[in-house]
């Protein structure tokens, strides 16, 4: 028999009609002569009533059913009695009076109870991912992901963007993260690399004149895994020609607004706020500020230059800074011990050596360091600049600027959560613009690209690329959502000389950059147009929209924290013949094997 | 200045307006005081007129321009004189009177002339792919590909299919083609495999209850390359639950009709013809018949069993068959030498030892073997069954059935092209259904799956899986377009015992199949639903629609025939440090290096 509708689609219009459903037994309640079954499919659940007086066949089969059996049910849609209506189901006013039930496939007892995830380990969920994906939350998340990608495609298509596929077997480039490599059988000793992004290919597509490109594409990084990282992740990749940074941002804003509306039903106000990178760092201590709540970092460096509290004045003297945040009304929420142990340990993670604090009560500033400021200009500065009121908790870090921003920025985020300052129904986007082009890498003793080596320096800074690289800003922009970087983009270099100077600023020799990027430089000889674009982390975007904290929750078959697929057990050893064909030997250090 | 429109979009509505265009110099004609420029962007070409009397600036810059320079043009849209209208351009009745021209980027002389592809080697095209892609044909092909994928997504989305991504770093499975593998750094000596298809993941998604899945996904096979094969190729992958083979075929037919309409403007008549595999082989000598022309293989085995022509009767005696095709009206087109050398050499490729022939003229059958049949029942059989008429050329192969079908099937296709029997504007789809489940592999001395090991045997044949595997047919179906297999699908096995029997029939030991497919078998213990689907070769489909003969022509950045990217030169050696991190040594046989 053919299925006539989905369980979740059973509605008043089908009343008194005979229908055929196929799905999984979600629940079974035996009331003697009558057995109630919850039948589940992707669209929802409907109650099946198997009454021995109506169909002995149906009742007998129903009697033998267990959870997760796959069954076919033929029956009549009827109204439930008023007192048995289930308001939690969309089908809750109806039920199906079974005429015939057929077992399609049986099921063992599941290794865990569905929709009760608190009791299930990640290991078990991963091993039985096909069962884990039956859970309401995972069904919703994967469907949301689908809706997001569909909305993206719809918008970009109607806006003239062309979906073009770029290679997965490509060239290894040492700049950036570690590549996954693929040994070549035909070219012994040579390897393809899996792309970290299709950056150069999309730039070459602009050279080819496609004008507007997009792709939803897998990318790969062989990095040590952290919370929301996976060896393979999905990127929404976009590139356009002949546009400046603001024009690109406008397109992307419209895209974001469309996606939020279509997938979440949320209206986003445009234009999205723009904030300079330097301001983000100075005011929020991070390049990805969570603007769902306030609590700025306030600069007290000048005010503390002469203070008797030597920790502050000494820091200022050595060229450091003093900043503070005001946890409004939190004085009573944190004891001295909470601060001197818990919060101090927390800021130490980010390199801070200490965490000074003041509580405010009706009498004014209190706490161990308050006495240094008593009746002095420092006291006035604190009260005014921090907008101090009774009940406030003010926390200070004095150190090098980088440490102060990192420590207070993270502390601010912690307070945002702990003090309940965040409205989880809000989606707060912000553009962080005007990035530095380069960062100095202390380990490698050279400059590295803040974004990537193809980012366009600001026109007015181009001359400083060789003479004063640290002062060069870039036409680069990140899009931040609720404190997560969800996308980053830039205008790209399109002139050979500038690109060569960029490689030189990064410490490449001519031989090195010709070897690695010669094809790009050569392309720049043949009418290379100005272009720019952006790349979104799709997993992370969907994670935030789904209200999840790990991208595993929005990927159908993710790897675990040791980059392994817990279901198939990949990676796994391959045969000697395979290795021989690839001219490879595996050489495992035995000592490491324990 | 911002671009106001595309070159190809300049039309009457813009008459007398000032516009800004950006694009490439496609052509330049200097008529002294006036220079005409063809400015090109993705949407087309428009003529720019730089007249020194109107703008000295524009004329001076125009004078310095060369092909493929990237420029910005500000100017007024005017009508061309009637005698200078260019009917080949959509913008041909208009031109842009330049007010200002700015050079954005220069270009060296290109290594080849655009849109004159007959003169360019594949090597040069590949090396400068970004220039090759500027050619009209490649622009059209990539845009067609985009339209095809968009149409696919539109149809499947509105039909309730969910786009779900499956992993690229997955488990190596020895059944099938050779895998590309990816060494794991974390798990020394272990490897991921790049997927040959997401087959098992999509089956597990059906177990998870998503009901309807699709994905446009890259697949990888490390095989020796032939005409239209690439190391990485793109598959449209579809799977559904609770449907029989005909229901699935109906969905796919509607999809095909939609895609043909949206991307090509072609109406396809539904339902698509269905042909049993055995009939395809018997009548057309191939499992992918080109039905744009007739010329069936005619069975003369019984008629030739007793003939004096011992080549035929001897073959029949040894259990072989005799078949023939009639190349209508081709008697004069092929000389005795053409047949005995050219065509004979051709069928020898497919294992035929000889190629007998008869020409028909007003007097009847002629040619070296005609005398054996003269005034005998064989003559009557030939004339009647072959529908022989004066001017026909009839070709016979007598051999084992497989050789006869292969040789005559290919000869039929050759005649289709050589005799101009094919209308290239026709798109002729056919379902080839009722496939054998297994094929006997002479090299491996065992049965292998005709499709893959997860294909459902026909219900009535299940019992023969162990006792008489060669007699088992499958619920499998291929979709064939113009003689190319563009897609293949089946119902899948969803019961553990049957799947285990299938593995056994393929010669797996219990340990082997548990090791490789244990996770699938385990999943079948937990309410695995009946399901089936199909996978299309997207590259090949677009290739046929584009009228191309190699999938390279519809892939933006393809590999060459030695699996190399001629632009980036991937694959390439990686650093010793990278190898060390992967616990790998490269061991190249020096002798092979010469």
From TrEMBL, chains A, B:
Record field: catalytic activity: tRNA(Asp) + L-aspartate + ATP = L-aspartyl-tRNA(Asp) + AMP + diphosphate
GO CC terms in record: cytoplasm
Residue ranges of domain Aminoacyl-transfer RNA synthetases class-II family profile in the record: 144-566
Binding site for ATP: 221-223, 230, 485, 537-540
PROSITE patterns noted in UniProt: AA_TRNA_LIGASE_II
Assembly notes: Homodimer.
Protein name per UniProt: Aspartate--tRNA ligase
Species this chain originates from: Atopococcus tabaci
Lineage: Bacteria, Bacillati, Bacillota, Bacilli, Lactobacillales
Gene from which this protein is expressed: aspS
């Amino acid at each position: 028999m053919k299925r006539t509708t989905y369980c979740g689609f059973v509605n008043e219009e089908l009343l008194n009609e005979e229908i055929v459903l196929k799905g999984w037994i979600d629940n079974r309640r035996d009331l003697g002569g009558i057995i109630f079954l919850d039948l589940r499919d992707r669209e929802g659940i409907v109650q099946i009533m198997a009454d021995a007086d109506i169909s002995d066949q149906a009742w007998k089969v129903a009697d033998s059913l267990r959870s997760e059996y796959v069954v076919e049910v033929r029956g009549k849609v009827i109204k439930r009695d008023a007192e048995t209506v289930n308001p939690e189901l969309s089908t809750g006013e109806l039920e199906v009076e079974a005429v015939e039930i057929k077992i399609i496939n049986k099921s063992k007892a599941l290794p865990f109870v569905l929709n009760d995830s608190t009791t299930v380990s990640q290991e078990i969920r991963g091993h039985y991912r096909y069962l884990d994906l039956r859970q309401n939350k995972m069904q919703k998340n994967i469907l949301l992901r689908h809706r997001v990608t569909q909305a993206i495609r719809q918008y970009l298509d109607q806006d003239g963007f062309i979906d073009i596929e770029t290679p997965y077997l490509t060239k290894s480039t040492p700049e950036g993260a570690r590549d996954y490599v693929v040994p070549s059988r035909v070219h012994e000793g040579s390897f393809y690399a899996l792309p970290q992004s299709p950056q150069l290919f999309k730039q070459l597509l602009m050279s080819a004149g496609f004008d507007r490109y997009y792709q939803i594409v897998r990318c790969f990084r062989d990095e040590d895994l952290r919370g929301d990282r996976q060896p393979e992740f999905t990127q929404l990749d976009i590139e356009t020609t002949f546009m400046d940074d603001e024009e690109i941002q406008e397109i992307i804003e419209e895209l974001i607004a469309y996606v939020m509306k279509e997938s979440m039903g949320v209206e986003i106000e445009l234009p999205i706020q723009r904030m300079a990178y330097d301001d983000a760092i100075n005011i929020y201590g991070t390049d990805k500020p969570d603007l769902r709540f306030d609590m700025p970092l306030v600069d007290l460096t000048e005010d503390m230059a002469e203070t008797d509290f030597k920790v502050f004045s000494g820091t200022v003297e050595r060229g450091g800074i003093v900043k503070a945040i005001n946890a409004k009304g939190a004085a009573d929420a944190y004891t001295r011990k909470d601060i001197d142990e818990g919060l101090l340990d927390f800021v130490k993670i980010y390199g801070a050596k200490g965490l000074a604090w003041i509580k405010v009560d009706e009498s004014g500033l209190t706490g161990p360091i308050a006495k240094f400021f008593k009746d002095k200009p420092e006291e006035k500065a604190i009260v005014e600049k921090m907008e101090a009121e009774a009940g406030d908790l003010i926390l200070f870090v004095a150190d090098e600027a980088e440490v102060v921003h990192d420590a207070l920025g993270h502390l601010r985020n912690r307070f945002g959560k702990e003090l309940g300052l965040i409205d989880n129904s809000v989606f707060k986007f912000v553009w962080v613009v005007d990035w530095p082009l380069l960062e100095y890498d202390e380990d490698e003793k050279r400059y590295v690209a803040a974004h990537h080596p193809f980012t366009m320096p600001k026109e007015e800074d181009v001359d400083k690329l060789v003479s004063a690289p640290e002062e060069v800003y870039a036409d680069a922009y990140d899009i931040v959502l609720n404190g997560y970087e969800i996308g980053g983009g830039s205008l790209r270099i399109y002139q050979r000389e500038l690109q060569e100077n960029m490689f030189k600023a990064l410490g490449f020799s001519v031989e090195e950059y010709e070897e690695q990027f010669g094809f790009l430089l050569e392309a720049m000889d043949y009418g290379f147009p100005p272009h720019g674009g952006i790349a979104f982390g799709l997993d992370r975007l969907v994670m935030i929209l789904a209200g999840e904290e790990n991208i595993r929750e929005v990927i159908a078959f993710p790897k675990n924290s040791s980059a392994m697929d817990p279901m198939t057990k990949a990676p796994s050893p391959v045969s000697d013949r395979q290795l021989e064909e690839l001219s490879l030997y595996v050489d495992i250090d035995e000592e490491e094997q324990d």
